């Protein structure tokens, strides 16, 4: 969906390097999710923001992972230091909780390869 | 807690075949149910949804009926096309923000010409 723009589309880095993934929201939403997708584990929720406030980060695998949402239209996911097992596709998704619908709009993802 | 179980893939069909992808769920209360589709190299997109028992969601020739008695939301299409090749995710939302949103592991569908 054009309302969620992720960058970069692809990132190749070496183990130990810092990686920053970015998510820009074009339309107004009150919730933002970071997901990680791998063949082995499928889609995993890493962290969830509501109205820019981190609500649930229990899915963040380790202290090496951190996420921020400084305003309603931008968020970052940082991995420092990166490890090969972090290789995955990372998705940002924006949601608008309306009654019984938590409909999500996904970005195109960032394919991360840590060598 | 909530959970969604989908049939494992890959599912390989010939063009114009009938498609069923099974999805069952466990949840507290009365969740909303969704099917998302992920085309190669893209993020997930909402395909269809149903918010209460016996509702039928439909889009692009795909259908799914919310069956509370069997806790199922199977995805069906009468005649698949090569362009339907993608990964399909069943999901539920039972309220309460992220805690209430649960995805299945996805089913990879391959349609051969």
Summarize the structure.
By secondary structure, chain A is mainly β.
Oligomeric composition of the shown chains:
heterodimer
Q: Major β-sheet of chain B, in short? A: 6 strands, mixed
The coarse silhouette of chain A is globular
Strand content of chain B: over 45%
User: What is the distance, rounded to the nearest whole angstrom, between the alpha carbons of the first and last residues of chain A?
Assistant: 30 Å
Low-confidence spans of chain A: none
Mean pLDDT of chain B: 91
- Biggest interface and its residues per chain? A-B, 25 and 23 residues
Rounded to an integer in angstroms, the radius of gyration calculated over CA atoms of chain A is 13 Å
| Rg calc of chain B | 14 Å
What structural class results from the helix and strand content of chain B? mainly beta
Helix and strand pattern of chain B: EEEEEEEEEEEE
Calculate the terminal CA-CA distance of chain B, rounded to whole Å: 41 Å
Helices of chain A, by number, come to: 0
- How large is the share of residues in beta strands of chain A? over 45%
Number of strands of chain B: 12
Principal-axis shape of chain B = globular
Task: List the topology elements.
The complex is a heterodimer of chains A (115) and B (113).
Chain A: E1 4-7, E2 10-13, E3 19-25, E4 31-38, E5 42-50, E6 53-56, E7 65-71, E8 74-79, E9 88-98, E10 101-106, E11 110-114
Parallel strand pairs in A: 2-11
Antiparallel strand pairs in A: 1-3, 3-8, 4-5, 4-9, 5-6, 7-8, 9-10, 9-11
Chain B: E1 3-6, E2 11-14, E3 19-21, E4 23-26, E5 32-38, E6 44-50, E7 56-59, E8 62-65, E9 75-77, E10 86-93, E11 101-103, E12 107-112
Parallel strand pairs in B: 2-12
Antiparallel strand pairs in B: 1-4, 3-9, 5-6, 5-10, 7-8, 8-9, 10-11, 10-12
